[in-house]
Amino acid sequence: MELSDIRRDYTKGGLRRHDLPAQPEILFDQWLKQAIEAQLTDPTAMTVATVDADGQPFQRIVLLKHFDEKGFVFYTNLGSRKAMQLADNAKISLHFPWHPLERQVHITGTAQKLSARDVLTYFSSRPKESQLAAWASRQSSRLSARQALESKFMELKQKYAKGEVPVPTFWGGYRVTVSSMEFWQGGAHRLHDRFLFTRQADTPSTWDIERLAP
Question: What is the annotated quaternary arrangement, including any partners (predicted)?
């Protein structure tokens, strides 16, 4: 089969202007809840795109851990490639691919580091194995073999067998302040519905809404 022959029609319904709330996070909340109710695999998974000093884009999958009108939150190793790139260029793009629902959400914005208090609160809520993994992995650094990673994990597991795991100094999180949010709903005959919310610079609580051609 040729790749160019792989296609399907989109039939789950459209998105109309009268369906849109004034604030995009309200619609995002509705769509995320529906993705969870539909039991999609990893409904909070999002592609995070950053750019290095040479302008080369990079993407990876990260889990959304919180969102509200202030922004979208995720956590990571502060020595990772994404964190190093955000230190030079805080502009960021997020993408949620809810294909079974024939929906996508694309977000642009600026990433800011979370406070130490926020990081501690979330890190303390993680399973102990996840806490240990944060210590064991120097994210994005080169490994000689997987055994080195597993050995470090087991060493830490024994070290903190009877005590609490402290927050690594190299671990933290980001809040993405949204500049724009686009909602994509698949439509029949490739006549998809796309609406772009753009935050007004002079009144940040107000959004311009435009329909985009598919």
Answer: Homodimer.
